[in-house]
Amino acid sequence: MAAGDARILIIRRDNIGDLVCTTPLLDALRAQLPRTWIGVLATTYNAEVLGRNPAVNEVFVYEKLKHRRGGLLAFLRGRLGLAGRLRAQNLDVVLVPAPSPQALKAARALRPGRVIASPVRFPEGQHEVERTFDLGRSLGVKGLPGPMRVFPDPAYAARLRAAAGAGSCIAVHISARRLKQRWPIDRYAALVRELSREAKVMLLWAPGPRDDPRHPGDDEAAKRVVEVTKGANVVAVPTPDLATLVAALSLASKVVCPDGGAMHIAAALGKPVVALFGDSPVARWRPWGVQSQVVRADSGDLADLPVATVLNAVGDLAASTGGSKSPSSAESPETETG
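The structure assignment produced for this chain is given below.
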């Protein structure tokens, strides 16, 4: 069967940002192989990234064991049923951008014509968007990756706009999973207080207690920021699900957040971003295709990053957004501090 008529499944069983970084490949497959059927196997955690995406024919969603909400028997039945549905698609190609043993095993179990996996090793300095996009080369995809894209739910966006009020705002997202990506909360509070002198600030966080083993939350941290910035021009918006996070970020004029899913979503929405990086590689994970400023401490630990550095980056970002760049040439100036 010709590549243009193929039935292709992409497996992205990893994190939110990884799936966002796959959207340029999806757009290229749709544009260059328009008769191709494109499916994506995602998780309950990241599937909303592809909500309303016109490049995708179908999104198949499964629940990871660590995120399981129901009984074990129902969980196993759901897994078996999903595998059967996928095998019934008579897949020609399964693409595996993150070739873990589990992902490769799952791909082969679907009995496709071919399994194409990304190499485990790749050039230093290559962005995740570029690394994933290269998977399409074997199917005839040409050119360079374009921008990442996500599509907010209009109903969610309307509700948040009504709650936040009219006018532009700067979004500050404070949640991060990994310890070295967590900026001390008192510094977030100081940042929000300073930013609110010039503009409305939308404070975003993943709700819940920090000790939740499945989805650690930042209710206590957000409460602290709200207390410290009492009287300032701040709107507090918890984001209990991915649809709410996407909708909230879509309302912002610019975004300040740690490296992670929210950062990639903001970039996919075309928002200028100030990205706080811990010890993850900037070249691979920097905001793609938008004006951005990357800040990090020399130590690789955000605990060592001062407020002044982030404020300066916000100022530099505002100065740099007068022009625009193509997605493939957008730069992310990097600031380090000791």
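Interim note for the steering committee: Confidence is low (pLDDT under 50) at residues 323-330. The first strand starts at residue 7 and ends at 11.
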